[in-house]
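Exercise 3.2. Students should predict the tertiary structure of the chain below and write it as structure tokens, then compare their answer with the key that follows.

Predict this chain's 3D structure.
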Amino acid sequence: MKVAIGTKNPAKVNAVMEAFMSFTNIEFISTDVPSEVSSQPFSDKETMIGAINRAQNALLKENADIGIGLEGGVMETDMGCFLCNWGALVDRHHEPIVAGGARIRLPDEIYQLLKKGKELGDIMDEFANQHNIRKKEGAVGILTDGYVDRKKMFVHVMKLLVGQWTYQNKEKVK
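Answer key:
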């Protein structure tokens, strides 16, 4: 089975591979594809659409059996701005399967920089005085002091996706 992952971000790619760990004969291909949303999604809806677009674009680009899209974003609420993440799994036989992950509130100083148009990854690099946080622990890793990192957040989403997909395809997966 050929699984196309719509990113080359190591945190996301490793999350996909971990979620499919119990499967055999899988070929993983990570590929750069557009999300067709803002580089910094600012709502659940936009982040979800980005994940679906990445999954569909990866499926088509690589002529795969399954396409995976994982997208991180933020969402504004009355309680402040929250980190959010969404994933999508597509195949050629069903509607996209979508799942979301845990959320944490971002500090107000980070939210203010987001509102000025900066991307969360860039803000977090400056905030933590590190480089490429988005490809490592992510904002969630910094803001939870390492208790949860970006890969773990996306593994959770991926397990929700893979579980739904195996449920829909019980006869094929056995």
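Discussion points: The chain has a mean pLDDT of 93. The beta strands are 2-5, 27-30, 66-77, 80-90, 97-100, 104-105.
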